[in-house]
Specification:
By secondary structure, the protein is an all-alpha fold. The chain has twelve helices and no strands.
Length: about 300
């Protein structure tokens, strides 16, 4: 990474070990970005051509690019802590499981307090219109109303969706938290290393953000530049929190749980957002917005 960060007055064995880590990290980043960016470009083309299913599949496959990069770079997987460690780590597991929803809810509440006109009190009617008569008929056949349908989706995002998402998120977390962050922390120190790691992680998403409006859409202020730049800030905050639980537990399964919980809850606040405000996601109410993500950013700073 930075040759100037290696002190050649150190023990030669330590210098060699650091240089080897640098070489492997550089190889990891090349593979992680190369594989992912190719997949994201193809996914963006699919999105623009209206092939939503293939778009979703390619995005899911992209999440495994960092893990593939770890394998291709011959980074030691064994040191990542693959044995589940529950004893002594319950509070960190609960933090990873429910923390994102708490922070996301706080951000959404803050956003709607500041912009009450953006809250859609008729969200149930809007969702009913979106799913159409056929969708409503299917719900009624199961005995569910629209409000019940919304509640079930929210409960699912809190209870089991984080665990399902965890297996996809592991593809990223084994690369970012397991392989990249430890080397960056060793290079730059904990705080600076995590910030550098967050910027890298955010930039990894840029092609799909630019081509398909991932996270912010395509009509926000300053598109397509401000969204990717803001996302680097959000990714830094997310990365700090995920790396914190990983450092506390030394278990590679817990950051993916937190990552999965973020993905599960991410879109919930949008259920209550008036459609005309959907082009202003840079602000909120989602966690990727400035106000929607403020509680998460403050938690990361703390």
């Amino acid at each position: 990474m930075n040759p100037g960060s290696i002190d050649f007055r150190q023990n030669p064995a330590e210098v060699f070990d650091m240089a080897l880590k640098d070489k492997k990290l550089f190889s990891f980043l090349l593979w992680a970005f190369g594989i992912a960016w190719v997949l994201q470009v193809v996914a963006g083309i699919m999105y623009r051509s209206g092939n939503a299913m293939l778009f979703s599949v390619l995005l899911s496959v992209t999440m495994f690019a960092p893990l593939i990069a770890v394998l291709l770079s011959r980074i030691d997987l064994k040191q990542m802590g693959w044995k589940p460690r529950i004893r002594g780590n319950v509070k960190y597991i609960l933090a990873a499981w429910f923390g994102p929803a708490l922070l996301g809810t706080a951000g959404a509440v803050l956003y709607f307090l500041l912009f009450p006109e953006a809250f859609d009190s008729a969200f149930a009617d809007r969702i009913a219109s979106a799913i159409g008569e056929e969708g409503i008929a299917r719900l009624e056949a199961t005995g569910l109303s629209i409000p019940a349908y919304i509640i079930i989706n929210i409960v699912a995002s809190l209870i089991y969706a984080p665990w399902l998402n965890m297996f996809f998120a592991l593809g990223e977390e084994a690369g970012w938290r397991g392989a990249m962050y430890p080397v960056l922390r060793e290079h730059f120190g904990t705080a600076k290393g995590r910030i550098v790691g967050g910027i890298i992680w955010g930039a990894w998403h840029w092609p799909i953000m630019i081509l398909a409006g991932y996270e912010y859409g395509t009509s926000y202020w300053g598109a397509p530049v401000t969204g990717p730049l803001l996302f680097c800030v959000i990714a830094t905050a997310m990365g700090i929190l995920l790396d914190w639980v990983y450092e506390k537990t030394n278990c590679i399964w817990i950051p993916p749980l937190g990552h999965g919980a973020i993905n599960a809850f991410a879109g919930i606040p949008a259920l209550f957002l008036k459609p005309e405000y959907s082009n202003n996601l840079l602000v909120g109410p989602l966690m990727v917005g400035i106000i929607g993500g403020l509680p998460m950013i403050l938690a990361a700073v703390l």
